[in-house]
Design brief:
Length: about 350
């Protein structure tokens, strides 16, 4: 009796009268026929949780890009000068991140296959060299220190705007700033060229062989008169730079400081440390030269050629690509002819080969 009342009550709710005996049969039929009480169900299956998350992420990314685009248009209309700096900053971060990822990939490959630095292809070797120099740059350390106090980050942005050359790396320079700053840096190292030539003249009496004394005197005279030396004029002195008095370990302290400035290295460190940095820098350039000779200068882009020339002492920002390739070919002929014990000549070649090259700014 109680069961009958329950069945009749449920029938009233469902809107149809059924007998208690047919209740379970009717429910089974409805389930099999796909009918449902209330609104009809969609034939689509529910998405999995992973698909839901993917759709949500896609929606967030789309909205973020739209908002970012509106923000860029707002800055471009109302703050055009700030927008230029903002764009350069964002692109600089992207380039910096891409360089870091590439350097990590190269180092991982070196570790997996037990490859040394000098065994890398030229472009990978050059990329690692640039990353290592960036890691040793004291600009980032200075910015990190002054940004430690609360709210000091606003001061950092102001200093970066006022002193971009002193506080920013090349990733955050405008194209015009890159040209201007490279000119400034070359002017710094060019100031040391006459000083280095004078030190070479002072050691001429210390050279035992008369033929080497004559060759070095003639080379210094040509450079002082504005003549670009020939390759054989420089290679004739290779023995002179392998030991006393012009080997790296035998150079005077002031001579070492002048060479450090010519290589855009700080000259305020103790002479033993300066000698170590000069030998390390020269060895890396020598290894790069061997890799570049194997690759071939013709495989380099115009920007890679200019960058390679600037690293080796030539102000390539105002020289045509053909002249840069010619000069770089002369450098490689000299570098690939030298042994490791003669790298002091390669170090001085930064001055000897670049001072009077045609097309350079005086």
């Amino acid at each position: 009796m109680a069961l009958s009342r329950v069945c009749w009550a449920r029938s009233a709710v469902w809107g149809s009268v059924v007998t208690p005996g047919h209740f379970f049969t009717r429910r089974l039929q409805l389930g099999r026929s796909g009918l449902a009480w209330g609104a009809p169900r969609s034939s689509k299956l529910h998405l999995s949780p992973k698909a839901d998350v993917k759709n949500l992420m896609s929606y967030v990314v789309t909205k973020t890009k739209a908002i970012n685009g509106k923000y860029h248009r707002f800055l471009g209309r109302h703050f055009p000068r700030f927008y230029v700096l903002y764009t350069i900053f964002i692109k600089g971060l992207q380039m910096l991140w891409a360089d870091a990822k590439k350097a990590r990939r190269i180092k991982t490959n070196m570790w997996k296959h037990n490859i040394k630095f000098h065994q890398l292809p030229y472009r990978e070797m050059e990329h690692l060299r640039q990353v290592i120099i960036f890691n040793q740059d004291l600009k980032c350390l200075f910015l990190g220190i002054i940004s430690i106090p609360p709210f000091a980050n606003y001061l950092v942005f102001l200093l970066m705007y006022l002193f971009p050359r002193q506080l920013l790396i090349r990733h955050f320079w405008t194209p015009k700033q890159q040209t201007d700053f490279l000119d400034i840096y070359h002017a710094f190292r060019k100031q040391s060229h006459p000083e280095i030539i004078s030190y070479l003249e002072k050691v001429i009496p210390l050279i035992s062989e008369a033929g080497l004394r004559w060759h070095l005197t003639d080379l210094c005279t040509k450079i002082q008169r504005g003549t670009h030396p020939a390759i054989h004029d420089i290679l004739a002195l290779r023995e002179c730079f392998s030991n006393h008095p012009l080997g790296v370990n035998q150079l005077q302290a002031l001579h070492v400081k002048a060479l450090s400035r010519a290589m855009l290295l700080t000259s305020y460190l103790p002479p033993p440390l300066l000698r170590h940095r000069l030998k390390t820098r020269t060895t890396v350039i020598h290894q790069l030269d061997k890799a570049l000779a194997k690759l071939g200068i013709g495989q380099l882009t115009a920007q890679e050629v200019k960058s390679a020339c600037y690293l080796r002492g030539l102000n390539s920002t105002h020289i045509g690509e053909d002249r840069c390739r010619t000069w770089l070919g002369e450098w490689l002929q000299i570098s690939c002819s030298l042994k490791e014990t003669e790298l002091s000549l390669l170090l001085h070649n930064v001055v000897l080969l670049s001072t009077n090259y045609l097309g350079t700014r005086r």
